[in-house]
C-alpha cells in the first residue's frame, strides 16, 4: 500500500501526498481523486500535482484527521480517470543558443547528440499536471536512457519556450525564469496567455509530441 500524508498549507489549504511510482496509472488516480474532492462541500479548488493533490477550502478545515482518512480511503479504492486529451505538436530546434546543454546531456548519458534527439522526440508525452509556473506542463514519458541530474549551478534566467530535461522529467518553460534543468532545445509556443480562455494551453491528460525541425551546432 502506498504511504500517504496530509500537510497543512497556511490556514485554508492542505497538501495530500502519495508515495507511489511516477507513472500514468498512478497519475490517473490523482486525477480521479481531484475530481472526487472537487465535489466536497466547502472545497474552493482541487489542484492535482505530481503524485499529490492540493485542496483549497473556503473555510479553515477543523478535522484534518478525518480529511486525511477520507482522502486515503479514496486513494486506496484505486479509482482512476482516463482522459482522451488533445495532442499538441511542437516544433523544436535542438541545440544551438536555445539548447546550450545538449552536448552535456550527450556526455552524461553516453549517447550521441543524434541519439539524444531521436529518443527525446520519439514518444508522445502525457501532461501529468500543470504548475510550477503558470501554464507549465509536467510531462510523463521520458525515455529512462535520457535521465540526467539537475545542474549543480542553476541558470538565473531561462527564456520562455526553452526545452529542458532533469531526472525522468522534461518540459518546455512557459515563461522566463530560473532553472536547474539541462536545456536541450527551444520552441515557439505560448503555454499561458491571460487574454485567452482558458489561459493555460494544456490541461492534465493532454499530450505533447516534439518534432525536431533542426539540430543546431
Q: Say how many strands there are.
A: 13
Read across the widest sheet, the strand sequence of neighbours is 7-6-13-5-12-9-10
Report the β-strand fraction as a percent range: 35-45%
Q: Please give the count of helices.
A: 4
Largest sheet: 7 strands, mixed
Given helix and strand content, the structural type is alpha+beta
Order of helices and strands: EEHEEHEHHEEEEEEEE
* Bulk shape: elongated
Low-confidence runs: none
Please tell me the overall pLDDT. Answer: 95
Which radius of gyration do the C-alpha atoms yield?
Answer: 19 Å
Distance between the termini: 48 Å
- Helix percentage: 10-25%
What does this structure look like?
The structure is a single chain. A seven-stranded mixed beta sheet has the order 7-6-13-5-12-9-10. Strands 1-2-4-3 form a four-stranded antiparallel beta sheet, covered by helices on one side. It is built from four helices and 13 strands. With 217 residues, it is α+β, with helices and mostly antiparallel strands. The model has no long low-confidence stretch (mean pLDDT 95). The longest helix has 15 residues, at 24-38.
Supply the key terms.
217 residues; four-stranded antiparallel β-sheet; 4 helices; elongated
Amino acid at each position: 500500500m502506498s504511504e500517504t500524508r496530509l500537510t497543512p498549507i497556511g490556514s485554508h489549504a492542505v497538501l495530500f501526498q502519495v508515495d507511489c511510482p511516477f507513472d500514468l496509472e498512478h497519475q490517473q488516480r490523482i486525477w480521479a481523486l481531484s475530481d472526487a474532492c472537487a465535489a466536497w462541500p466547502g472545497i474552493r479548488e482541487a489542484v492535482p500535482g505530481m503524485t499529490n493533490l492540493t485542496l483549497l477550502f473556503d473555510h479553515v478545515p477543523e478535522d484534518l484527521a478525518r480529511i486525511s482518512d477520507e482522502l486515503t480511503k479514496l486513494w486506496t479504492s484505486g479509482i482512476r480517470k482516463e482522459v482522451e486529451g488533445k495532442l499538441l505538436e511542437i516544433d523544436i530546434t535542438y541545440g544551438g543558443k536555445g539548447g546550450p546543454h545538449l552536448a552535456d546531456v550527450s556526455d552524461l548519458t553516453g549517447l550521441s547528440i543524434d541519439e539524444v534527439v531521436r529518443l527525446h522526440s520519439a514518444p508522445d508525452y502525457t501532461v501529468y499536471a500543470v504548475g510550477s509556473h503558470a501554464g507549465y506542463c509536467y510531462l510523463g514519458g521520458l525515455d529512462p536512457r535520457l535521465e540526467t541530474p539537475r545542474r549543480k549551478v542553476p541558470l538565473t534566467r531561462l527564456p520562455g519556450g526553452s526545452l529542458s530535461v532533469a531526472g525522468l522529467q522534461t518540459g518546455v518553460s512557459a515563461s522566463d525564469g530560473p532553472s536547474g534543468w539541462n536545456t536541450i532545445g527551444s520552441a515557439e509556443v505560448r503555454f499561458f496567455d491571460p487574454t485567452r480562455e482558458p489561459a493555460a494551453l494544456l490541461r492534465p491528460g493532454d499530450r505533447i509530441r516534439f518534432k525536431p525541425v533542426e539540430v543546431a551546432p
